[in-house]
Write a sequence for this structure.
């Protein structure tokens, strides 16, 4: 087997995760795609097989909120490839509504997937990366983690917290040569669920491939530097002071 970098992508079956998987496949990486939806994973796998061999890709049904499921993901990665070089924490969900009308189950669902899931995966990655003194972890945040939309309390809170998790992990990883960073996407065409109905036809959008380019740049950076925090958005998108 080639000595390629091995990358786990959570939420790898749709949207940004799919875009990242295809970009890395085109550049001959070993890929582990994780999601609860196996059908979506297999579709992305088949697209990736246009660029890489079957022995370079693994799909793993994973619930990032469940610690045993996450441990299985990382165990299968090591069993298959014997290494982990990069984790892309991309799994996420959007939900919200007026704060005083929010059901606690909505709050729990969003925080569990977007924050608990990222933490569990990050923890398992550290267990593997610390002994070898090498590794990169890229968290996919959102500009909602800097400038919130109306009626997005759970999502906004989770993404603000993900920035804090990123910085705390980057500090702990520093002495072990582990870089932890976060990318904040603006409007992505494949994630229209994050756009209010009245804005879908008016807000500028970008493709998941644009975010994939930034992830690829982060992976390719020399090991002694870290693109700690970055924002990518359509040039015409409202950002500061958006509604």
């Amino acid at each position: 087997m080639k000595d390629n970098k091995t990358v786990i992508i959570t939420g790898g079956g749709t949207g940004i995760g799919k875009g990242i998987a295809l970009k890395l496949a085109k550049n001959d990486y070993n890929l582990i795609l994780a999601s609860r939806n196996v059908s979506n994973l297999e579709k992305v796998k088949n697209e990736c097989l246009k660029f890489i061999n079957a022995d370079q890709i693994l799909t793993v049904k994973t619930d990032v909120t469940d610690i045993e499921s996450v441990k299985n993901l990382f165990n299968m990665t090591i069993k298959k490839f014997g290494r982990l070089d990069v984790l892309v924490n991309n799994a996420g969900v959007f939900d919200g509504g007026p704060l005083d009308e929010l059901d606690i189950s909505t709050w729990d669902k969003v925080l569990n997937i977007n924050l608990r899931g990222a933490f569990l995966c990050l923890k398992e990655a550290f267990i593997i990366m610390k002994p070898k003194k090498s590794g990169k972890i890229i968290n996919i945040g959102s500009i909602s983690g800097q400038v919130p939309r109306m009626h997005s309390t759970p999502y906004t809170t989770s993404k603000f917290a993900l920035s804090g998790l990123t910085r705390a992990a980057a500090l702990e990883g520093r002495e072990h040569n582990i870089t932890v960073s976060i990318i904040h996407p603006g409007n992505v065409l494949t994630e229209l669920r994050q756009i209010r109905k009245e804005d879908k036809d008016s807000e500028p959008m970008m493709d998941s491939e644009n975010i994939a380019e930034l992830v690829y740049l982060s992976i390719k950076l020399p090991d002694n530097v870290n693109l700690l925090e970055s924002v990518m958005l359509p040039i015409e998108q409202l950002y500061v002071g958006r509604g």
Q: What stands out?
A: The CA atoms of residues 181 and 228 lie 4 Å apart. The chain has a mean pLDDT of 92. Residues 6-232 form a domain with the Rossmann fold fold (CATH 3.40.50.720).
